Here is the input.
Amino acid sequence: MREAESTINTEQQILEVAEELFLSKGFAMTTTTEIARRVGCNQALVHYYFRTKYNLFEKLFEKKFTILTSAISSEPQRNSGLKEKIEAITNKHMDVIIANPKLPFLIINELTTNPARFENIVSKLREQSLIILGELEKDIETEIKKGTIREISAFDLLLNILSLNIFMFLAKPLLLGVRNLNPDEFDSFVQKRRQEIIKTIWGGICIK
Here is the structure.
């Protein structure tokens, strides 16, 4: 039992350290040697558990993506209307970014430097994405028939939400300078932006 617990703890430690390094240094600058040194094990053990650095990176991204998809397709949400879903998706996605502020930079960097590597990961997660888009599409069609919103695809709607949320974190250095905000004030600004983003998204599709 103790040996099994030790194995799980070591594997978890490797994942946690790899996540920290990938988010701070990116894929290319992170090495299994440094991961092993930070964990306090030898490099062979890292390869024993995960075989390659890419496998570690893939597990990190799958973990973050699963957290997001699980949050925005939760059971209570499935029974709510489109407006409530927009609010929930915006808030849940924002929560994930706040908890992982370096994740958008990592994704953009990897998409730019090695799109093929990211495509392999995304292809495995496509099924989860299609489920979320399918649920949104049904709600959109219902609202269009009721005459409450204009025509828009589920993909465009979701992309609008994610883009507005992510931009604040990508532009954080600029926003801190332009608005003369300190880190605490920026956190407050982010919380206020939640409602503005929700109003912008709903207002952009709502037929007045």
